[in-house]
Amino acid sequence: MHREGYAIVFKLMLADLIVTLASLTLGSGWVGLSLCVLCWACTGLVVFFFRDPERHTLSGTGEIISPADGRVIGIDEVDENEFLRGRALKVSIFMSVWNVHVNRVPLEGVVKYFRYQHGLFHVASSAKASKENEQAVIGVESPWGKILVRQIAGILARRVVCNLHEGQKVQRGERFGIVKFGSRLEVFVPMNVRVKVRAKEKVRAGETAIASMGEGWE
Asked: Which of 2, 108, 147, 211 is packed most tightly, with the most Cβ within 10 A?
């Protein structure tokens, strides 16, 4: 389980225990039993949400891997004036509440840009979420070029957690944060990069190659 889930799960289990003991003490019958089952089931779902499975990231030359589990909801040509400063390709990935929400670095390099934006909480799959929602923006400079990653909060995701900072060296596939309870990630790459996924395709963080800036897997 991701460390961000420990405090939440502990508090929920404590509340579940209190509800269970109260139900047994008061002899509330099937009503109390149903409430106990519901409380423990909700805690189980939260544990499931914060799961953090190991992933095997293959080494490769300039391969950009998916930073998130989810579904590709768009591949668009856009102006990216924050870090790449020019035309770029944007790959948008939507994470439902059922996906693993731990995020992983798409490409090794150095974090050259970081910005955290407090914002709104539109549905993460909507276009305006990209600009208006709470988000963390990370620019990575690699030996093959620059990429930009956005962690975007959704209607249920009320906190973006990013453990990176400017000047930090990062490796492809390493964990760098989490967005809680349904969200969206965007990866901006140069126009000459070969995108390797399609719209509606499912991807896995740390494993699925979404684009190539080099010669492919070694």
From this structure: 147
